[in-house]
Design a protein that fits this description.
Layout lengths: L6 E5 L6 H11 L3 E3 L3 E2 L14 E2 L2 H9 L3 E7 L2 E6 H9 L3 E5 L2 H10 L3 E7 L3 H11 L4 H16 L6 E4 L3 H16 L2 H16 L2
Parallel strand pairs: 1-7, 1-8, 2-7, 3-4, 8-9
Antiparallel strand pairs: 3-6, 5-6
Length: 206
Amino acid sequence: MKNKGQLIVLSGPSGCGKGTIIHSLLEQRQDTVLSVSMTTRQPRKGEVDGVHYFFVDRATFEKTIAEDGFLEYAEYNGNYYGTPLAPINRWLEEGKNVILEIEVQGAEKVMARCPEHMSIFLLVPSLVELERRLRNRGTETEEVVLNRLRLAREELQRSSHYQYVVLNDVVEEAVARINTLIEAENMRYSRMETTVMEVMKYVSTQ
């Protein structure tokens, strides 16, 4: 009576802590995996094929496009990036929850294509706090920081497109909130219907 896994769309401004949250979730939940994107760009030092990305050539990527093999895809700076369907479908059928860490524009495409999704927008306590986090990285220029703050304001305006908004003030508490949402979604009737039917079938034979 194993149910299908959940497709979890997770978005939020750069610097809101998505990576940290996902790392904690994956450590805590054996039933959850992170979707791996496909790209035509070259691997960077330390990146592993199938872990950080599926690295493919342009012909392979365009063949996958022609076969309708992506949930969503886009081209940036001469390279393709996309979310392949095949591994996601396999994981969902196995009962695994699949997290898509994805920017707002791509998330909206996934939401439109996959009605049975769970969408979460990860919120920072304030834009002042977000600016502090971005500057503390020490890896970005002033121009990049200001651009990320501008994009964050735009993304916040589109947070109403998501089913849930989770505040990431304390990482452990944010992870606990998301775990609560996952468990609640697991108990929706639409997900429990097969189990209900199996129980009714058993009762009817007694």
